[in-house]
Specification:
mainly alpha, 5 helices, single chain, Arc Repressor Mutant, subunit A, globular, 75 residues
C-alpha cells in the first residue's frame, strides 16, 4: 500500500486510525515508509519538534508506546 492510499483509507477500514487528525495520518504514513522525524520534517516543511509531537500524539491515540509497535500495528 502506498502512503497516499494509507492517508485516504476510510476510518471504517482501519478503526485504529479513527482518532488521528489528517496531519497525524500523513506523519504515520511516512513512519510506515521508514522515514525519521528529521526526514519527515524536511518533506513536510515542518519543524522536527512538530513532527515529534505528532508522532507522540499518534502513539497516544493508537495506544502504543513505541514507534516500532505503531508501525507493526499499522502494516
Amino acid at each position: 500500500m502506498s502512503w497516499r492510499e494509507f492517508i485516504e483509507m476510510p476510518e471504517t477500514a482501519r478503526p485504529e486510525l479513527a482518532g488521528l487528525s489528517p496531519a497525524e495520518r500523513v506523519v504515520a504514513a511516512y513512519l510506515l515508509c521508514g522515514l525519521t522525524n528529521k526526514e519527515i520534517a524536511a518533506v513536510l516543511g515542518k519543524s522536527v519538534a512538530t513532527v515529534k509531537n505528532q508522532v507522540a500524539a499518534c502513539l497516544a491515540k493508537i495506544g502504543v508506546t513505541s514507534r516500532s509497535r505503531l508501525i507493526a500495528l499499522l502494516r
